[in-house]
C-alpha cells in the first residue's frame, strides 16, 4: 500500500500527483490519497512554507518552473499562493464518504485547476462546482463539506498525520516506510520493487 499525504497548496505535491497513480500501478500497490493541512505540521515542527522562506522561496519557484518544463505540465502559481486549502480538503473527505472512487479524481482536478487556473482552494463556493464534472451535485458537496463531522474529520486526519511523523508535502508511506518529497519517488518505487533494503 502507498499512502500519499499532501497539502493542495504544495507545488511539489502537484508534481507528485501527476506521477503517483502510474507508480502505484507499476508496483502493484493500492494507493490512498490523503490531503491534510500542512499548517498543522508546521505548528509541530516550527517550519514554514517554502514560498514564505527567504532564498528557498525564490529557488523553489525556479525549480517548479523547471520541473513543469521537464514533465511537460502546464503550471502557473495562482495569485496569493499559497492558499489555505481547507475547503478543498474538507470537500475531498465528504466525497470520500459518499463516493470513495471519485475522491482521487477530485484531488487531481483540484491540483490541475489550482496550478493552471488559480482556483481558490480556500473558498467552498469556488471548490464545490468541481463536483459537477464528477457527476456530483455542487450544492450537496458544498453542504456536505460544511458539516461539523467533515470539519472534525479533516482536522483529525491532519493531527493523525503529525502523530505518525508526517511533516511535509508530499509525504509517502510505502509498505510502512516513510519518504518525504517528490524527489523520493524513484526511491519509493525501488523500495517497493525490492522489498526494502
UniProtKB/TrEMBL annotation:
<dbReference type="InterPro" id="IPR036249">
    <property type="entry name" value="Thioredoxin-like_sf"/>
</dbReference>
<protein>
    <recommendedName>
        <fullName>2-hydroxychromene-2-carboxylate isomerase</fullName>
        <ecNumber>5.99.1.4</ecNumber>
    </recommendedName>
</protein>
<dbReference type="InterPro" id="IPR001853">
    <property type="entry name" value="DSBA-like_thioredoxin_dom"/>
</dbReference>
<comment type="similarity">
    <text>Belongs to the GST superfamily. NadH family.</text>
</comment>
<feature type="domain" description="DSBA-like thioredoxin">
    <location>
        <begin position="2"/>
        <end position="191"/>
    </location>
</feature>
<keyword id="KW-0413">Isomerase</keyword>
<dbReference type="GO" id="GO:1901170">
    <property type="term" value="P:naphthalene catabolic process"/>
</dbReference>
<dbReference type="InterPro" id="IPR044087">
    <property type="entry name" value="NahD-like"/>
</dbReference>
<dbReference type="InterPro" id="IPR051924">
    <property type="entry name" value="GST_Kappa/NadH"/>
</dbReference>
<dbReference type="GO" id="GO:0004364">
    <property type="term" value="F:glutathione transferase activity"/>
</dbReference>
<dbReference type="GO" id="GO:0006749">
    <property type="term" value="P:glutathione metabolic process"/>
</dbReference>
<feature type="active site" description="Nucleophile">
    <location>
        <position position="10"/>
    </location>
</feature>
<dbReference type="Pfam" id="PF01323">
    <property type="entry name" value="DSBA"/>
</dbReference>
<dbReference type="InterPro" id="IPR014440">
    <property type="entry name" value="HCCAis_GSTk"/>
</dbReference>
<dbReference type="GO" id="GO:0004602">
    <property type="term" value="F:glutathione peroxidase activity"/>
</dbReference>
<dbReference type="GO" id="GO:0018845">
    <property type="term" value="F:2-hydroxychromene-2-carboxylate isomerase activity"/>
</dbReference>
Amino acid at each position: 500500500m502507498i499512502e500519499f499525504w499532501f497539502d493542495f497548496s504544495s507545488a511539489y505535491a502537484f508534481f507528485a500527483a501527476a506521477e503517483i497513480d502510474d507508480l502505484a500501478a507499476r508496483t502493484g500497490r493500492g494507493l490512498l490519497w490523503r490531503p491534510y493541512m500542512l499548517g498543522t505540521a508546521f505548528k509541530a515542527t516550527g517550519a514554514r512554507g517554502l514560498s514564505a522562506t527567504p532564498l528557498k522561496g525564490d529557488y523553489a519557484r525556479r525549480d517548479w518552473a523547471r520541473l513543469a518544463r521537464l514533465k511537460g505540465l502546464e503550471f502557473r502559481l495562482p495569485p496569493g499562493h499559497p492558499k489555505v486549502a481547507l475547503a478543498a480538503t474538507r470537500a475531498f473527505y465528504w466525497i470520500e464518504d459518499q463516493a470513495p472512487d471519485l475522491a482521487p479524481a477530485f484531488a487531481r482536478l483540484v491540483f490541475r485547476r489550482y496550478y493552471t487556473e488559480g482556483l481558490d482552494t480556500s473558498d467552498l463556493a469556488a471548490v464545490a462546482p468541481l463536483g459537477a464534472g464528477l457527476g456530483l451535485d455542487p450544492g450537496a458537496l458544498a453542504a456536505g463539506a460544511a458539516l461539523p463531522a467533515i470539519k472534525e474529520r479533516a482536522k483529525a486526519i491532519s493531527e493523525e498525520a503529525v502523530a505518525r511523523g508526517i511533516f511535509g508535502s508530499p509525504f509517502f508511506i510505502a509498505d510502512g516506510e516513510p519518504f518525504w518529497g517528490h524527489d523520493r519517488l524513484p526511491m519509493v518505487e525501488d523500495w517497493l520493487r525490492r522489498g526494502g533494503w
